[in-house]
Backbone:
C-alpha cells in the first residue's frame, strides 16, 4: 500500500532537487525525507533515486510516479472533501417520528418559526402512533428521534438504550354535547356526570386503564354508548349529541361546533409528551429542535 504522504514528499523532492530542500519546505528533517523515500521504494519495488555522496537524481520511474502521484493526490483530496460534505449533510438530517395530533397542531408552528429556519435541518417526518415509532427506534437506523406520549405510568414502554426527555404536557378536558344545556366553561362535578352517556377508549388499552381508574377514584360510573380511540371521532360524536368524552387539549384545536368544554375539578389528567433518542446521541441541533417543540406546545 502506497502512503499518500510519501507521494507528496516525492513530488517535492523531485521539484526541489534534494532531500534537504524538500525537508525544509515540508517541515521534516532530511533524515525523515530519506526514510520516506526508502519506504516508498520498498512499497513500490522500484528504484526512485540514484544516490551519490553529494546529490540525488530521480530515475525515470520516479518521474513517471510523480506525474501519476499528482492525480492520485488530487483524487484523494476530492474524496475527503466529498466525504466531509456527506458527513455534514447527514449531521443536518433529522428523521422524526411523531404522533398525529402533535404533527397536526404543533409541528407546523415549529416549521414556520424563525428558530427552525436558523437550524437548517433537513427534516424527514413519519407520522404514526407511539407504539409504532418506539418499535422502529428500537430496531435502529430508521428514526433519529421520536415524540411520544404517555398517560400515567402505563401503556408505553421504550428500549433501555433510549434516552427520554420530557417535552411538555397535553391536559385532558371533558367535552359535552351543547344540546345538554350546560354552558361552555362551566364547572361541574363528577357526580353530575355520573350515569350520563359517555364515549370512552376501547377497554384493555393503557390509556383506558388509567382513565377507568381515575373515574373510579372519583366515583364516576359512565354509561358507555361508544368506544373510540380516535379523538376527532369522539368530538364528532359528542357534537352530534351522543355523549360526553375526555379528550386532550391538542385534539380541541379542531373542536367542532356543537360541543362545550367544562371544568371538572376531580378530573385532572394529562398526556405527558416525551422525546426518545438513542442514549448519548442527542446532538445540539436536535436538542434545539426539541426546545422549539416544547415552546410551541406551551
Residues:
Amino acid at each position: 500500500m502506497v502512503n499518500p504522504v510519501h507521494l507528496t514528499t516525492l513530488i517535492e523532492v523531485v521539484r526541489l532537487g534534494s532531500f534537504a530542500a524538500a525537508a525544509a519546505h515540508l517541515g521534516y528533517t532530511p533524515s525523515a525525507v530519506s526514510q520516506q523515500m526508502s519506504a516508498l521504494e520498498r512499497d513500490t519495488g522500484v528504484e526512485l533515486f540514484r544516490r551519490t555522496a553529494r546529490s540525488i537524481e530521480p530515475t525515470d520511474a520516479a518521474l513517471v510516479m510523480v506525474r501519476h502521484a499528482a492525480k492520485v493526490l488530487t483524487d484523494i483530496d476530492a474524496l475527503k472533501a466529498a466525504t466531509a460534505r456527506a458527513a455534514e449533510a447527514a449531521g443536518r438530517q433529522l428523521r422524526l417520528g411523531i404522533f398525529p395530533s402533535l404533527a397536526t397542531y404543533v409541528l407546523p408552528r415549529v416549521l414556520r418559526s424563525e428558530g427552525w429556519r436558523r437550524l437548517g435541518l433537513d427534516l424527514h417526518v413519519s407520522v404514526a402512533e407511539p407504539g409504532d415509532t418506539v418499535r422502529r427506534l428500537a430496531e435502529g437506523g430508521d428514526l433519529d428521534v421520536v415524540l411520544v406520549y404517555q398517560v400515567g405510568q402505563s401503556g408505553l414502554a421504550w428500549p433501555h438504550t433510549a434516552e427520554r426527555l420530557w417535552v411538555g404536557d397535553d391536559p385532558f378536558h371533558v367535552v359535552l354535547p351543547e344540546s345538554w344545556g350546560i354552558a361552555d366553561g362551566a364547572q361541574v362535578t363528577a357526580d353530575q356526570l355520573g350515569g350520563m352517556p359517555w364515549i370512552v377508549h376501547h377497554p384493555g388499552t393503557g390509556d383506558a386503564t388509567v382513565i377507568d381508574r381515575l373515574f373510579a377514584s372519583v366515583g364516576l360510573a359512565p354509561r358507555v354508548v361508544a368506544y373510540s380511540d380516535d379523538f376527532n371521532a369522539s368530538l364528532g360524536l359528542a357534537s352530534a349529541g351522543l355523549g360526553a368524552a375526555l379528550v386532550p387539549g391538542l385534539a380541541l384545536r379542531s373542536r367542532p361546533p356543537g360541543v362545550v368544554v367544562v371544568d371538572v375539578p376531580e378530573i385532572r389528567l394529562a398526556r405527558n409528551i416525551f422525546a426518545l433518542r438513542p442514549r448519548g446521541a442527542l446532538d445540539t441541533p436536535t436538542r434545539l429542535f426539541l426546545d422549539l417543540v416544547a415552546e410551541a406546545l406551551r
User: Anything to note?
Assistant: The CA atoms of residues 34 and 48 lie 11 Å apart. The chain is about 45% helix and 25% strand. The chain has a mean pLDDT of 90.
